[in-house]
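Sanity check

After download, print the first record. It should look like this:
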Amino acid sequence: MTTERACVLMPIPDVPIASPQIYRCTMSSGRNAPLLMTCEYTANNGAIKLDEYVIKLFGDPGLSKGHLARELFTSSLASVLGLSTPLSTIIRIDEHTSFPGIDTAITERINKSRGLNYGSKFMPGMKIFRSILDDHLQDATDIFAFDMLAQNMDRRKDNPNILWGKEGFILIDHEMAFPCATPIQWLGKFPEPWEVNQFSPKNHALFSYLRNKPVSFDAFICKLQLVSDKVLDAITSTIPGDWRSVEIGLICQHIGKARDNAITFKRALQEALV
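Expected structure tokens:
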């Protein structure tokens, strides 16, 4: 299987708005115990459809609207760079939304999160990634490069946040990506995009599979150089207004630095796998 990839960006994915209709369950996996719900939305052809979504609530402990903005931005950027993620959706929980008969604790969580929340399309039949085949070495390389760009320390060996199925890798859970959005939480000067060793690359879920392999970052770097400020603005425009803050601007500045210093960033990726 060839590792050559076309140096083109994928379209920015649409982000539909859906309304929850039926509570299914609370997911056993995930830091914030997201909810699985059947939601109603309007398709591009005007048809009303139902689908199941994994929903993260901004009122839950450890989450905020800023985290949901990062989740949506990072998922959309991954898609633009040719990586697979579940369809992102804005979940509107208004004052009339109710689910009679559900657990009181879940009702309280929903009440604290009335407004716009983040949903990702449920992917039944997918399994948590455990190993890769050589045929998917380039996919794994691109994921590693993306996570180093996003400074994502949450895709660890013990918690890969990668689904695997017949469609290949599916990346999930990005609310902790781009800590550059909150540099005040970092002790000392925040690292430059190419200082990837500050973000524990050896703990990445794919590090051991990629180390000492004939990997190439050329395709990823080529695409990164195409991510213009206009593209970043277009991704930002898909984020609900009340989720946006200066944090998204800091993320865009970070990506712009990596893009404008792409050769330095590429060298850092190569050195991280030594």
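If your output differs, re-run the checksum step. Summary of this record's structure: Residues 65-80 form the longest helix (16 residues).
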